[in-house]
From TrEMBL:
Every LigXa-like C-terminal domain range: 104-361
Protein name (Swiss-Prot/TrEMBL): Aromatic ring-hydroxylating dioxygenase subunit alpha
InterPro entries assigned to the protein according to its UniProt record, in alphabetical order: Cholesterol_7-desaturase, LigXa_C, Rieske_2Fe-2S_sf
CDD domains, sorted: RHO_alpha_C_DMO-like (cd08878)
Highest taxon of the lineage: Bacteria
PANTHER family: BLR4922 PROTEIN, IRON-SULFUR DOMAIN CONTAINING PROTEIN
Keywords: Dioxygenase, Oxidoreductase
Lineage, opening ranks: Bacteria, Pseudomonadati, Pseudomonadota, Alphaproteobacteria, Hyphomicrobiales
Length: 409
């Protein structure tokens, strides 16, 4: 457990806050390219406690400018683009479009370079971007993503689908080099050993599920500082996901789905997700207001939550159920929370670095050669228990060697 003062320090992100100062020193997703294409005018953006709009400046360049908003405007409100009024003399932030997302830099000085992550260097044909609204603080949204054990419980499927029918869905694949569905692996081996190591970009998180016959399932995920994760979706695809604060009590998840093999079927993936979200605010159709479509019959025979097959809904229920801002003064972290503990330490260290003017100490800032940061390794593998590290690495190298675009590391 932590004090209320510390909980406030690591969760609140307004312009004059400690955590907000850290997040503002990194590129943040501000909108989807799909939103730009669909708009006939400015695109409203609510980000880090500020009400903004994507507009063209006098030179025709896209920028993020401060817009006029009413005091009672909902956090994810999308006003009529034609009615948006900008604040004369208000902050204007630079933007850049990458792989279907529009990023902005809201901090002081020169923006940092983008790392050479797979999601950024894959061709456009192999990357699909989407987002969704969650009514909770950004930190609890991030922390569910760096908890490797939660998938065995929150995303427990009591029946295993045919993996060939699961394109574009997480955990709808067979474990590497076996005929065992991933859903079965997670269900039958629910309590992994977890190893966490610090990297140039954040944290590498390895979950080890020890199986029969001296085999171990190895699942490598990553925390990319300050508030992204990179995780395997299937053997072919990875997910890079940012948890982006709208304000203290609401956030968006922005995701890039990156394929190592075939081009992504963007129409299929968009259609899948639009069945679960409404436009223009990308709010999920299942929510607290309709009890997330909870079905006790489904819970009896199909899923742990009884809330359908979309795991985003499971995560949404879990993080929104903690309240707008999770009360960490009464929590009791355990062995399975190793990555959450390490991340909070890293965030507190970054806060101190900014407060003391030592911004070069931040991950991927200062003198770091960010362009040399590649990957990161994010995959599932089953290997001999005594040789799991090498086997996990070689599985990733094989996937990269067969990749039609340059995925070399």
């Amino acid at each position: 457990m932590i004090s209320q003062k510390l909980n406030d320090q690591i969760t609140r992100i307004g312009p004059q806050t400690a955590a907000g100062a850290v997040l503002r020193r990194y590129w943040q997703p501000a909108a989807l390219a799909d939103e730009l294409r669909a708009s006939n005018g400015a695109v409203p953006v609510n980000l880090l406690g500020e009400r903004l709009a994507l507009v063209r400046d006098a030179s025709g360049d896209l920028v993020l400018a401060t817009r006029v908003s009413s005091p009672d405007e909902p956090p994810a409100h999308y006003p009529d683009p034609q009615s948006i009024e900008l604040v004369e003399g208000g902050p204007v932030y630079p933007v850049v479009e990458k792989k279907g997302m529009v990023f902005t830099y809201m901090g002081p000085g020169t923006p940092p370079a983008f790392p050479n992550f797979d999601c950024f260097r894959a061709p456009d044909s192999h990357v699909f971007a989407f987002k969704g609204l969650w009514e909770c603080n950004w930190l609890q949204a991030l922390e569910v993503g760096i908890d490797p054990a939660h998938a065995s419980f929150l995303h427990r499927f009591l029946q295993d689908e045919d993996p060939s029918d699961g394109y574009g869905r997480q955990f709808r694949d067979k474990a590497a080099h076996t005929d065992m569905p991933m859903t079965q692996v997670l269900r039958e081996y629910p309590r992994p050993d977890i190893e966490v190591e610090q990297t140039d970009f954040g944290l590498k998180i390895t979950a080890l599920r020890h199986m029969a016959n001296d085999l171990t399932h190895v699942r490598v995920t990553n925390q990319i500082f300050p508030q992204a994760i990179c995780i395997p979706m299937s053997r072919e695809m990875i997910i890079t996901q940012w948890h982006v604060p709208i304000d203290d009590e609401n956030c968006y998840w922005y995701t890039m789905f990156t394929s190592f093999a075939k081009p992504v079927d963007k129409d299929v993936m968009r259609e899948q997700r639009l069945k679960e979200h409404r436009l223009p605010d990308y709010a999920p159709l299942k929510s607290r207001a309709n009890n997330y479509h909870y079905n006790p019959d489904e819970q009896e025979s199909l899923t742990y939550t009884g809330m359908g097959l979309d795991i985003n809904v499971h995560d949404q229920w879990a993080v929104e159920g903690l309240g707008p801002i999770q009360d960490r003064t009464r929590e009791h972290l355990g062995r399975g929370d190793a990555a959450i503990v390490r991340y909070r330490q890293m965030l507190r260290k970054a806060i101190k670095a900014v407060e003391s003017g030592e911004e070069d100490m931040l991950p991927m800032r200062g003198g770091a050669d960010v362009g040399r940061i590649v990957g990161p390794l994010s995959n599932d593998a089953i290997a001999s228990t005594h040789d799991w590290k090498q086997a996990s690495f070689l599985t990733d190298m094989q996937r990269r060697a067969e990749c039609p675009w340059d995925a070399s590391v």
